[in-house]
Amino acid sequence: MPCRIKDRIKMEYLERALQDGGDLEARGQLALCALLGWSGIQALGRTGSIPIHFIEHQVSGHYDISHGRGMALLIPAYLNHFADTRPERWAKLARRIFNVNEDNDLEAARALGPAVVKWLESIDMHLTFSALEIGSEKFDQMTDDIVRMYGTLDGNKVPGPRPMGREDILAIFNASH
């Protein structure tokens, strides 16, 4: 069966894999989707970066947390923080995947983070630093590392849909606490 790169399909296979680790079809589909997702095929000529991954790499680097769990930890705060950045795109995702029925793009974009939290709770994957008994002691260090490693040549911003400064990254860490 070919990998169907659609968010609803990936969500279905993730739920199946979490329910039954022996479900080889679900695990295979997730592996294939991950492989194709990072191959660049899905970009279809668009360029850009995905800064949520830059942020998560520091979490996995400092703590014993897998990339997927780290993404689950950070994505609600990231979505909430950037809801006003290209709200038409976030709104499209909210409507298409999470059945948000808000006509106003900004309001639909703002509904995306809470919808993701609700879904993560339904699969027992909603995480916070506090729930994982992780304090905020390393937030400044991780933020500095992100800006140093992924920042623009002037060292002030990390590229993305809206370039992120130090204050944006810290806000995401703090909102994930």
Could you please describe the fold and organization of this structure?
The protein has 177 residues and is an all-alpha fold. It folds into two domains: 7-43; 51-175, Dehydroquinate synthase-like - alpha domain (Dehydroquinate synthase-like, alpha domain, Up-down Bundle), CATH 1.20.1090.10. Helix content is 60%, strand content 0%. The chain contains eight helices and no strands. The protein has helices at residues 7-19, 24-37, 51-62, 67-81, 87-98, 105-122, 139-150, 166-175. Helix 3 crosses helix 7 (139-150), helix 4 (67-81) packs across helix 8 and helix 7 crosses helix 8 (166-175).
- Which strand-content bin applies to the residues? under 5%
* Principal-axes shape call: globular
Task: Determine the structural class based on helices, strands and strand pairing.
Answer: mainly alpha
Instruction: Please give the alpha-carbon distance between the first and last residues.
Output: 40 Å
Query: What's the helix count?
Result: 8
| Low-confidence regions | 1-5
Instruction: Name the CATH superfamily classification of the largest domain.
Output: Dehydroquinate synthase-like - alpha domain
Supply the CATH class of the largest domain.
Mainly Alpha
Give the mean pLDDT.
Answer: 86
SSE string, helix = H, strand = E? HHHHHHHH
The radius of gyration is 17 Å
Q: Helical proportion?
A: 55-70%
- Please report the total strand number as a whole number: 0
Q: How many discrete domains?
A: 2
CATH architecture label name of the largest domain = Up-down Bundle
**How does the major sheet shape up?**
none
- Under CATH, the topology of the largest domain can be stated as Dehydroquinate synthase-like, alpha domain
